[in-house]
Specification:
The protein has 279 residues and is α/β, with parallel strands linked by helices. The chain has helices at residues 3-11, 24-33, 55-71, 82-87, 89-95, 104-114, 126-131, 133-141, 155-160, 167-183, 199-206, 215-229, 253-263, and strands spanning 14-18, 39-43, 76-79, 100-102, 119-124, 146-151, 187-191, 211-213, 245-249, 272-273. It has 13 helices and ten strands. Helix 6 packs across helix 8 (133-141) and helix 6 packs across helix 12 (215-229). The chain binds D-glutamic acid. D-glutamic acid (DGL) binds at residues 18-20, 22, 48-51, 81-83, 125, 128, 156, 192-194.
């Protein structure tokens, strides 16, 4: 490959997708940890939530999104949604010729390394919990681990309503988490895109002795390693005036931007709506 071709590949964006706004917690980590990388984000706001849909549906949606992202010449794809990582990643990985990573494996790996008593908790959507995927990956690394998973479906709407620090969220978190406290877990995976935003509530209820694992952070770290390994890491910041971060959704661009600007420090000035069913 010629130098210009290698440079063009390195400067290509990373495609990131999620069922909606939650994947922005992953985008935020990518922006922090590998700030030279351009990002094309797609949030499937018309079809959210994925957490209570079937594997077939989530896989079909994810395939359409991957096709859309490939039209943007992305050099790698991050499945920022835990449910889509659980249901669709294995199949899609076989179908495309660019690197693709999800959020589950990086989170599981760190949790397996972090636990001292071998008791790990996982919280996520009904889909992620039902797939048992975190447990499968953790046990590949630590076969004796005892993994207890708990679906916490109300956390997603609470976060989207902005109730990050609120007595209602405390009350619900207490009910969801009491079982994990009783079991004596020492490590808890925040296995849903939204949960890092209520990390302090969860941390307070679980207690200081419980290590919280944020798959968004671990995924950005793994992405950096992957880009380096494949020679795709961009060492130079994009020129001023380039469209470094692009956002696309399937509905509700204004609401998306409002949420995005509440968690990402770069002012997000525009978000385009696309018809994802066309892909
Ligand atoms: N993004 C989803 C996840 O991480 C949560 C929201 C949804 O159910 O679509 O599993």
């Amino acid at each position: 490959m010629k130098t210009e071709e290698i440079n063009a590949l390195r400067e290509a964006p990373i495609g990131v997708f999620d069922s909606g706004v939650g994947g922005l917690t992953v985008v935020r980590e990518i922006m922090r940890q590998i700030p030279n990388e351009k990002i094309v984000y797609f949030g499937d706001t018309a079809r959210v939530p994925y957490g209570n849909k079937s594997k077939e549906t989530v896989t079909r949606y994810s395939r359409q999104i991957v096709r859309f992202l490939q039209t943007k010449q992305v050099k790698a794809i991050v499945v920022a949604c835990n449910t889509a990582s659980a249901f669709a990643l294995d199949e899609i990985e076989k179908e495309i010729d660019i690197p693709i990573i999800g959020v589950v494996r990086p989170g599981a790996k760190v949790a397996a390394e972090a636990t001292r008593n071998g008791r790990v908790g996982v919280i996520g959507t009904a889909g992620t919990v039902g797939s048992n995927i975190y447990s499968t990956y953790i046990k590949q690394i630590k076969p004796n681990a005892e993994v207890t998973s708990k679906a916490c479906p109300l956390f997603v709407p609470l976060v989207e309503e902005g109730l990050w620090q609120d007595p209602v969220t405390d009350e619900i978190a207490m009910r969801y988490l009491s079982e994990l406290i009783d079991i004596g877990i020492d490590t808890l995976i925040l296995g849903c895109t939204h949960y890092p935003l209520i990390r302090s509530t969860v941390g307070r209820i679980m207690g200081e002795h419980v290590t919280l694992v944020n798959p968004a952070y671990e995924t950005a770290r793994e992405l950096k390693e992957l880009l380096m390994e494949k020679g795709l890491f961009n060492p130079i910041p994009p020129q001023l005036g380039t469209n470094k971060y692009q956002f696309f959704v399937s509905d509700g661009a204004d609401r998306f931007m409002q949420f995005a600007n509440s968690i990402i420090k770069y002012g997000i000035l525009s978000t385009k709506i696309i018809n994802i069913e066309e892909f």
